Amino acid sequence: MKEIWIATTNSHKVHEFEQMFEQDCIEVHSLLELENPVEIIENGSTFEENAVIKAKTLCRYLNKPVIADDSGLEVDAMDRQPGIYSARWLGHDTDYTTKNLEILRRVESAADRTCRFVCAIALAQPNLETRVFVGTIEGQVAWTIAGTNGFGYDPIFYVPSLQKNLSEISEEEKNEISHRGQACRLLREYLHENFR
User: Fold this and answer.
1) Is 70 a catalytic site residue?
2) N or C: which end of the chain has fewer CB within 10 A?
């Protein structure tokens, strides 16, 4: 079985990637399995730059194929915040219920509630050019927190075509339409042709 490493300590992300790669017979490993932490400094100015930084750093450390995603929520009424700072917006230790309530408060009277999730996945392999695959899903900031299936900002991300928040649909449905699902499909297409 082929294996690929993911430069993340987010167990939710690891689970999503495991599901997506299951049919490809690709075994997923993550930073959670390393005894010694790898210092990764995310100082890029875009999702793509941060994904490449993470993937290349871990690839150099392990000398193995590594993928890294950088993803987040862009709220138009908040000048596309929290954006690349989505995970650490309002502080690393701030829980997502608090973050979601703060976004609801900030857009409460906004005429424009449009937002999007963006995901950039970088694939770094030893001695090969690093590739980046990007997916987005457009939506609106919901009026209330709803649903229990998602994580992060999913409970306030309303999908007009479904008339539901992302956290109100199944994992299978989410993987079909989500920003990470889209980027992962592009990655998988590339891996089918090029993964050694």
Assistant:
1) yes
2) N
**DSSP class of 149:** S
Structure pTM? 0.90
> Does residue 84 register a pLDDT over 80?
yes
User: Which burial class, exposed, middle or buried, applies to 85 when counting CB atoms under 10 A from its CB (0-12, 13-18, 19+)?
Assistant: exposed
Amino acid at 144: T
Q: What is the mean pLDDT of residues 37-43?
A: 87
How is the chain split among helix, strand and coil, in percent rounded to 5?
40, 25, 35
Catalytic one among 24, 70, 93, 95? 70
Q: Domains in the chain, start-ordered, CATH in brackets?
A: 2-194 (3.90.950.10)
Taking the CB of residue 135, how many other CB atoms lie within 10 A of it? 22
C-alpha distances in angstroms, 87 versus 78, 92, 93, 129?
16, 7, 10, 28
In this prediction, residue 25 carries a pLDDT of: 82
Is residue 79 pLDDT above 90, yes or no?
yes
What is the sign of the dihedral through the CA atoms of 149, 152, 156 and 158? negative
- Where does residue 149 rank: exposed (0-12), middle (13-18), buried (19+ CB within 10 A)? middle
